[in-house]
Amino acid sequence: MDAEDIKRAGFVAIIGSPNAGKSTLTNAMTGTKVAIVTHKVQTTRFPVRGIAHADDSQIIIVDTPGIFGAKRRLDRAMVKAAWTGADDADAVVHLVDAAAWIADKEGTATPAQKRTAEDDRAVIETLRSSERKVMLALNKIDLFPHEQVLPLMSEFDALGIYSDVFMISAENGDGVDKLLSELAGRMPEGGALYPPDQSADIPMQLLAAEVTREKLMLRLHEELPYQLTVETETWENFRNGDVKIQQAVIVGKDSHKSMVLGRNGQAIKAVSRAAREELSELLGRRVHLFLFVKIDAKWQERRESYSNLGLEFDS
Ligand SMILES: Nc1nc2c(ncn2[C@@H]2O[C@H](COP(=O)(O)OP(=O)(O)OP(=O)(O)O)[C@@H](O)[C@H]2O)c(=O)[nH]1
Ligand SMILES: [Mg+2]
Q1: Coil, helix or strand for 151?
Q2: Which atom of ligand 1 is nearest to the CA of 170?
Q3: 117 Cβ partners below 8 Å, 6+ apart?
Q4: Nearest Cα residue to atom 24 of ligand 1
């Protein structure tokens, strides 16, 4: 698509409880990996912009952190950023894990699914008290028969806070084009905001740190993934096209450092290999990745940790 073909352009915020599939949907709509995805809650920490095109519109998808009853400073900052993303957008999609709701109704919900439905109810209450209508997308419809989702659609519809209800699978793409095309029509008139060949607006160094954080989240258990952060410290482009990336994995204490390293350094080696392979693919170049573990007991109480990610420290 050429820039002059674009007649509309705007922002769409994807909001919802943790694990609803917001980042999966963002990646599906932009056709590339702009946001990291894991099966764990609170994967996304800051809003990420992906750029999609449909019909004559440029649609800037803002993936946001999951919304939940946050207590820690970092969590509060994440939730605040999600609502700010919604306030600033031309359209808002509330994404709901329909599989969790159906399991909740049938009494077969896992504790995690129960929490998801509870977090959704809190989001609904906030949306109810705001003036604006948002679009609802019921996600993960690949996980159960379609007839089960119909009563759920009517239930959400009856709340009177949604302008439309969509059924989608962010994972296999069902319904995603329809949603995108609907969004395209709602973008305000105006020219392109980004070059049409661009599919993400996230600095490469930050995306590279996110990829490593994804691999750490997949590998490490319990609280540990939530107690660490990753920073890209150096990035060197070589003449032969290779790139050398050095990253710090920052943890709060010694025992966490040992867990990140793993026995004989096995854990960090596996993380490094997985991150390197994915980065090579994303960049289309050979990547030399070097990970170091650093201890900084106060990283979650430092202003820069937040401003680096575009989060507000005083949330
Ligand atoms: N079966 C199925 N799984 C899905 C679908 N969409 C997302 N998932 C899975 O749901 C999990 C969470 O996906 P994410 O995209 O990370 O969810 P999120 O809403 O961004 O989560 P946070 O960043 O933690 O708020 C991952 O394991 C995804 O693979 C879907 O349509 N169907
Ligand atoms: Mg996410």
Answers
A1: helix
A2: 31
A3: 100, 101, 104, 109
A4: 42
Q: What length does the chain have? A: 315
Residue indicated by tokens 């915020």: 13
Stretch 148-177: mean pLDDT, rounded?
Answer: 96
CA distance 32 to 61: 12
Distance CA 95, CA 244 (A): 38
DSSP letter, residue 64: -
Centre of ligand 1 to C-alpha 73, Å, is 24
Burial (CB count within 10 angstroms: exposed 0-12, middle 13-18, buried 19+), residue 267: middle
- More confidently predicted of 76 and 132: 76
SS3 state at 5 = helix
Is the pLDDT at 2 greater than 90? The verdict is no
How does DSSP classify residue 65?
Answer: P
Rg (CA), the chain: 20
Report whether 65 contacts 16 (CB < 8 A).
no
The Cα 121–Cα 217 span in angstroms is 27
For 271, the enclosing helix (H) or strand (E) is: helix 266-283
| 16 close to 67: Cβ distance less than 8 angstroms | yes
For position 85, what pLDDT does the model report?
86
What is the residue-wise DSSP string for 171-189? TT-TTHHHHHHHHHHHSPB
What percent of the residues of the chain are helix, what percent strand, and what percent coil, each to the nearest 5? 45, 25, 35
Give ligand 1 pocket residues (Cβ under 6 A): 16, 18-24, 37-39, 41-44, 65-66, 139-140, 142-143, 169-171
pTM of the model: 0.96
d(CA 113, CA 296): 34
Q: What is the set of domains in the chain, with CATH numbers?
A: 3-186 (3.40.50.300), 203-307 (3.30.300.20)
Closest ligand 1 atom to residue 139 Cα is 31
User: Quick one: which atom of ligand 1 is closest to the CA of 41?
Assistant: 24
